[in-house]
Amino acid sequence: KIPIIIDTDPGIDDAAAIGLAFHRDELDVKLITTVAGNVDITNITANALKLVSFFDQDVPVARGMETPLLKPYEGSCVHGETGMDGYDFPEPTQEIIKLHAVEAIRSLLEESEEKITIVPIGPLTNIAVLLLMYPHVKHKIERIVLMGGSLSGGNMNGPAEFNMWADPHAAKIVLESDVEVVMIGLDVTLKALIGEKELAQCQNKSAEMFNAIFHHYRDGDMDHGVVMHDSCAIAYLTKPELFTIERRHIQVITEGPASGMTMEKFEEETTNMNVAVGIDSEAFQVWFLETLHRMK
Ligand code: BDR
Ligand code: CA
């Protein structure tokens, strides 16, 4: 099994990604860390706890950074007020652990005998702070498989994707660290859609919950399907053959009107990461439903 840490801001598509990760035999979710992003850190952390309880998991949750490194916190407008509106989750049975997210990741990495993959599906603030404060743990990180960025235009200001836009300075630190990065960006995630007719193929409580919260995502277009950005990072870990991956050199713009834009550097013959440039959308839906069928 691949040991992973999910760093997240649930978030409607984060909720799906977390549920899927819990139900893939290839993965062992060791820790969930929260970061301010789609909504504020209090709602985000409450949502992460609700998801762990909903899926009957015993995975520790640690609360992380409540603001980006330099810019002021600004949430996303497409995840509703609480980030997971529309479903009445039972009271969580678990509380957050005492350690801050950054300390929880450090301690897990230090104590682990095997390398661990970090899967950030929100802004990169926690991961940047970790790499700055504790560079000695880098060699315990197998790689960072992140949802974020784009080579083909953004979903915030024109060119920037939300997770990069929300904390571009953190993104720069992560992208320029010497840790292996796989970037799963909008180029593929916008083609990973799940809607009413897909969810209707599955009659369990999880499908019901997803159906309820997905209706609150952006314009809630459940006929066309809503975008499963974060689930693509989980899909990539368990079935990389769903994606076309290319080696590229990507940098992130931190200032000005294009801040958060991930830009390709062509002038040098160097590369710094693997980037997902293609996805088999139908096979993704099959993978999603097959995993959903395993849930309660
Ligand atoms: C990313 O931004 C968030 O709104 C989603 O959860 C996803 O992580 C997509 O741009
Ligand atoms: Ca997210």
Note the topology.
Blueprint: E1 2-8, H1 12-22, E2 27-34, H2 41-54, E3 61-62, H3 101-111, E4 116-120, H4 125-133, E5 141-147, H5 162-166, H6 168-175, E6 181-184, H7 186-189, E7 193-194, H8 196-199, H9 205-214, E8 226-227, H10 229-238, E9 243-248, E10 250-252, E11 262-264, E12 273-279, H11 281-292
Parallel strand pairs: 1-2, 1-4, 2-3, 4-5, 5-6, 6-12
Antiparallel strand pairs: 7-8, 9-12, 10-11
Helix pairs in contact: 1-9, 1-10, 3-4, 4-6
Bound molecules: beta-D-ribofuranose (BDR) and calcium ion.
Protein structure class: alpha/beta
For the biggest sheet, the summary is: 8 strands, mixed
Strand order of the largest sheet: 3-2-1-4-5-6-12-9
* SSE arrangement, N to C: EHEHEHEHEHHEHEHHEHEEEEH
**Number of helical segments with 4 or more residues:** 11
As residue ranges, the low-confidence spans are none
- Name the overall outline: globular
Strand fraction equals 15-25%
Give the averaged pLDDT, no decimals.
96
What's the total number of strands? 12
Oligomer: single chain
Helix content percent band? 25-40%
N- and C-termini, Cα separation: 22 Å
- The radius of gyration is 17 Å
Give the cofactors and ligands. Answer: beta-D-ribofuranose, calcium ion
Give a structural overview:
It is a single chain. With 296 residues, the chain is of the alpha/beta class. Helix content is 33%, strand content 19%. It contains 11 helices and 12 strands. The strands form 3 sheets. Strands 3-2-1-4-5-6-12-9 form an 8-stranded mixed β-sheet, sandwiched between helices. Bound molecules: beta-D-ribofuranose (BDR) and calcium ion. Calcium ion (CA) binds at residues 9, 11, 14, 37-38, 121-122, 230.
